[in-house]
Write a structure and sequence with these properties.
The protein has 212 residues and is α/β, with parallel strands linked by helices. It folds into two domains: 151 residues, 3-Layer(aba) Sandwich (Rossmann fold), CATH 3.40.50; 43 residues. Helices cover 44% and strands 23% of the residues. Strands 3-2-1-4-5-7-6 form a seven-stranded mixed sheet, sandwiched between helices. Helix 2 links the parallel strand 1 and strand 2. Helix 1 packs across helix 2 and helix 7 runs antiparallel to helix 8. The protein is elongated, with a radius of gyration of 18 Å. The protein binds S-adenosylmethionine (SAM). The site of S-adenosylmethionine has 17 residues, from strand 2 and helix 4.
């Protein structure tokens, strides 16, 4: 089965025979792929019944029997064990925080997002996780990051929160961030308070690049 590069990147991080809780599964393509290719058992949740109807149709068509569909807000009512792998992808950081806030979580969470990477890292690390891996994916002109969080503690510097302890050494990521930041700076009027912060960010990116 063919899935997007972004979902494939998530799937590659998940070992065969895992139990996966895919929050915001939408059409359940990741769950079907994981069931077929890696013999995973999946709980596919979504808050939107239309998405779940399509998910159910896709699952039936694929003849997989190891996916349970649940209509819920995030992890509400889901029995999470330490060994499960929670996947959250395709949502903003505020929604991700809402989903994780005050919940029983597993030892490993793979979270993909498009924006507010720094806030996401700070929040999940504050819940008692460290970053085991980070992937950067470009697809159809958009860039995504996927962070593999594991329960435990590591010491992080400011630049690790801002750019990622692993992504700060990834040239493709740094170049893309540089391009995006230059584009933003070009649109900020002179004297605007955001300008200085963006210029500082650009300088930090250049320093990281020079260290490679
Ligand atoms: C952009 S889609 C991403 C689908 C898939 N996870 C992916 O990465 O391709 C976001 C999905 O999250 C669902 N969603 C948004 N907020 C949610 C919440 N609080 N709980 C469960 N699902 C949610 C939406 O209904 C939608 O199906």
């Amino acid at each position: 089965m063919k899935i997007s590069k972004r979902l494939e990147t998530i799937a590659k991080l998940i070992p065969s025979h895992s139990k996966v809780i895919d929050v915001g599964c939408d059409h359940a393509l990741l769950d079907i792929y994981l069931s077929q290719e890696k013999e995973c058992e999946c709980i596919a949740t979504d808050i939107n019944q239309n998405a779940l109807d399509q998910a159910r149709y896709n699952i039936l068509r694929s003849h997989v029997e190891t996916i349970t569909i649940v209509n819920t807000d995030g992890l509400e009512g889901i029995d999470v064990s330490d060994r499960d792998i929670i996947v959250i992808s395709g949502m903003g950081t505020a929604t991700i925080e809402h989903i994780l806030e005050g919940k029983k979580l597993s030892n490993r969470m793979i979270i993909g997002t498009q924006t507010d990477f720094e806030d996401l890292r700070r929040y999940v690390i504050s819940l008692g996780y460290y970053i085991q891996d980070e992937k950067y994916v470009e697809e159809k002109g958009k860039s995504y990051i996927i962070i593999d969080f594991v329960r435990g503690k590591r010491e992080y510097q400011e630049e690790d929160y801002r750019f990622g302890p692993i992504l700060k050494k990834n040239l493709a990521f740094l170049l893309k961030e540089e391009e995006k930041t230059i584009n933003i700076i070009e649109k900020i009027p002179a004297g605007d308070i955001d300008l200085e912060a963006k210029q500082e960010f650009l300088k930090e990116l250049e320093n990281l690049k020079n260290r490679l």
